[in-house]
TrEMBL record:
<feature type="transmembrane region" description="Helical">
    <location>
        <begin position="409"/>
        <end position="431"/>
    </location>
</feature>
<feature type="transmembrane region" description="Helical">
    <location>
        <begin position="100"/>
        <end position="122"/>
    </location>
</feature>
<feature type="transmembrane region" description="Helical">
    <location>
        <begin position="262"/>
        <end position="278"/>
    </location>
</feature>
<protein>
    <submittedName>
        <fullName>Short-chain fatty acids transporter</fullName>
    </submittedName>
</protein>
<feature type="transmembrane region" description="Helical">
    <location>
        <begin position="186"/>
        <end position="210"/>
    </location>
</feature>
<feature type="transmembrane region" description="Helical">
    <location>
        <begin position="236"/>
        <end position="255"/>
    </location>
</feature>
<feature type="transmembrane region" description="Helical">
    <location>
        <begin position="290"/>
        <end position="307"/>
    </location>
</feature>
<keyword id="KW-0812">Transmembrane</keyword>
<feature type="transmembrane region" description="Helical">
    <location>
        <begin position="60"/>
        <end position="80"/>
    </location>
</feature>
<dbReference type="Pfam" id="PF02667">
    <property type="entry name" value="SCFA_trans"/>
</dbReference>
<keyword id="KW-0472">Membrane</keyword>
<feature type="transmembrane region" description="Helical">
    <location>
        <begin position="142"/>
        <end position="166"/>
    </location>
</feature>
<dbReference type="GO" id="GO:0005886">
    <property type="term" value="C:plasma membrane"/>
</dbReference>
<keyword id="KW-1133">Transmembrane helix</keyword>
<feature type="transmembrane region" description="Helical">
    <location>
        <begin position="21"/>
        <end position="40"/>
    </location>
</feature>
<dbReference type="InterPro" id="IPR006160">
    <property type="entry name" value="SCFA_transpt_AtoE"/>
</dbReference>
Length: 432
């Protein structure tokens, strides 16, 4: 029954799912039309809002490109390749492979979304390589979907934007909430229960969807071959440079106890990669190999930044959040917050940016209805992360690394998303 369910969704995705650039263009035109029809915004203003923010993701785009190229370079070092290969050898069949890849991806998704993005993609790829090497039939599209699952759980994890912002002194909602320690949000009974359910439930469900018959499987793409080890020891200048960077990482995280954000993640990938490659020429060669994976990010991120500009400056995003808040009661507000956050995420695929747009409405509405700050915040987080499964924005990096298309993985992602919605609603209803 589950296999038939997933097969129908996969068939729908294969038939109707546009490529990411086409989808971004379609969303742009749709948001333009909605903004003109439902807000006091003229078509000329919409174009101005679109261009105003069109380049606003440039710093973030560069960060994402750095995640890809430094993560790619790190993955080509002998030490990391051995570690990934070791894990990739565990599965003995397609069901086990799907479970292992999704579990590892989700585990790292709770630690840091950037780590999950890279590790999930490379692990899916390596598991498929090992399967081909051992002549085990593995369904590559579901492995790709499994490697993407870390982005479906990240906002309730240690790198979640909204909980971390609330815990930061001087945040924009401090006059309403004060400083909200992460133990009241990320380590609340609600989030602990949700974390356990997702960590176990998603891999089990995806494994149940995994095809059993060989004639149903799409195996590893033949054109994607495993890179040869390129690390050697021509000189040790790289070792010294890598050590210098690692000393700063230790100082930043353990001595100064600063946050583990996207910049320090990229810095860590960069200098640990240099250290493990040892030779700077080898490292430069590895980085060049990863640059091609940035094409989708370079092209599409400006268009999503433009969509965000229309949503924010026209007031459309705030209107969506306010509409759900207006029809809510103390029982339904968390559920409606989850839904409105999920809808808005499809147009503003940035957790931190979306919280800046919606956070004020979420917090003030919850206080008026007597709902705890942590529950309202987590409802927002769950909605934001969950519709990543329908939004190929974050999957671009994985698609480039694995060589898969969005339509290859989206059927399985949609199946997980649809089944998970009642789970979140139930948790938000039960926990106070």
């Amino acid at each position: 029954m589950l296999n038939n369910f997933s097969k129908k969704l996969c068939d729908l995705a294969e038939k109707y799912m546009p490529e990411p650039f086409t989808l971004a263009t379609m969303i742009t035109f749709f948001v333009c039309a909605i903004a003109v029809l439902f807000t006091p915004t003229t078509s000329t203003q919409v174009l101005e809002y679109w261009y105003k923010d069109f380049w606003s993701f440039l710093p973030f785009s560069m960060q994402m490109c750095m995640i890809l190229v430094t993560g790619f370079a790190l993955s080509t070092t002998t030490v990391v390749k051995k570690m990934i290969r070791y894990i990739a050898r565990w599965p003995k069949n397609n069901v086990q492979a799907t479970f292992v890849v999704s579990f590892i991806s989700i585990f790292f998704g709770f630690i840091n979304w950037g780590l999950a993005l890279i590790i999930g993609a490379f692990l899916a790829r390596q598991v498929a390589i090992e399967g081909r090497r051992k002549n085990i039939s593995l369904h590559y599209p579901i492995l790709g979907a499994a490697g993407y699952m870390g982005l479906a759980v990240w906002h309730g994890g240690l790198s979640g934007s909204a909980p971390l912002l609330l815990a930061t002194k001087g945040h924009f909602l401090e006059k309403f909430t004060g400083i909200v320690p992460v133990y009241t949000t990320l380590f609340s009974p609600l989030n602990i229960a949700c974390t356990i359910i997702l960590l176990i439930g998603i891999p089990v469900f995806l494994a149940a969807l995994a095809p059993r018959n060989e004639d149903e499987m799409v195996t590893f793409c033949e054109q994607i071959e495993e890179e040869d080890d390129i690390s050697s020891a021509k000189s040790y200048v790289g070792v010294f440079l890598g050590l210098v960077g690692c000393v700063y990482i230790i100082q930043h995280l353990w001595i100064q106890q600063k946050n583990f954000d996207l910049n320090i993640l990229n810095f860590s990938f960069l200098f640990i990669g240099i250290l493990l490659h040892r030779d700077l020429d080898n490292y430069f060669h590895a980085v060049k190999g990863g640059v091609k994976a940035c094409a989708g990010i370079i092209l599409l991120f400006p268009f999503y930044a433009g969509i965000k500009g229309i949503m924010v400056h026209s007031g459309l995003a705030q209107n969506i959040a306010q509409a759900f808040a207006d029809i809510s009661s103390s029982t339904t507000l968390p559920i409606y917050t989850f839904i409105s956050s999920g809808i808005t995420n499809f147009f503003i695929p940035s957790g931190g940016g979306q919280w800046i747009v919606q956070g004020d409405i979420v917090i003030q509405s919850s206080q008026q209805l007597g709902i705890s700050t942590h529950k309202a915040t987590l409802a927002f987080c769950y909605g934001d992360q969950w519709t990543n499964l329908l939004q190929p924005f974050w999957a671009l990096a994985l698609l480039e690394i694995t060589g898969l298309r969005a339509k290859d993985i989206m059927g399985y992602c949609m199946a997980v998303m649809l089944v998970g919605i009642p789970v979140f609603i139930t948790l938000l209803y039960i926990f106070h």
